Amino acid sequence: MTAFDTTPHEFGKPLPQKASDEVLEALFNRRSAPAPTLQQPGPSPEQMDLLIRLGLRVPDHGKIGPWRIVRFTPEAKTQVVEKLKALAESRGDKKDVGALIKMSTPPDMLMVVSAPIQPHKIPLWEQQLSAAAVCQNLLIAAGAMGYGANWITDWYAYDAEARTILGVKEDENVAGFIYLGTPTEPPLERERPDYDARVSWWG
Questions:
Q1: d(Cα 167, Cα 158) in Å, to the nearest integer?
Q2: Which of 10, 11, 162, 189 counts the most CB atoms within 10 A of its CB?
């Protein structure tokens, strides 16, 4: 399935660290694939399992795992979209109904939930950053597998009734929806921030 050994590492054992121009090139060319361009096939069940395992290998101050990933079968995703659509239609909000098209299109979807542990000595902000790192890892890993991916949020990530439909608890937040599939067209480069405007020396 992969060109490397995916046997789980034993706790406390040294991990191999090596330079990789392929990883650097992949990061240099990383680009999210627009959700509407993502079609079948998506990752296989084995690839999805590996993708999630890679996604969870993030910085996590305190080793507390302040996040969780929710998987959706195609049937479950259809049910969620229909329930969210009914919610938006009951309010007469055509814009919110239209936003659900993005969720309907890709073959696969993961929901990353920031599930901070409070009260805790690790600051809330650091726990939330760790959840964001899970989202980024999933994007990079999906690209390395040859799939397109998009990290997205929309009104249903913040709406109280929608969050109930999604199974998000009151003390949790949606860090992002990760849409996965095969792009039907290559993503185009976007404008990037000016290096000199964003980077400075201290002092």
A1: 12
A2: 162
The pLDDT score that the predictor gives to residue 145 is 95
What's the CATH code of the domain at 65? 3.40.109.10
- DSSP assignments along 157-187, one per residue: GT-HHHHHHHT--TT-EEEEEEEEEEESSPP
Residue at 4 is within a domain: no
pLDDT of the residue at 16: 84
Domain assignment of residue 100, given as a range: 37-182
What's the Cα-to-Cα distance from 68 to each of 33, 52, 71, 149, rounded to whole Å?
A: 24, 10, 10, 19
Domains in the chain: how many in total?
Answer: 1
pTM: 0.94
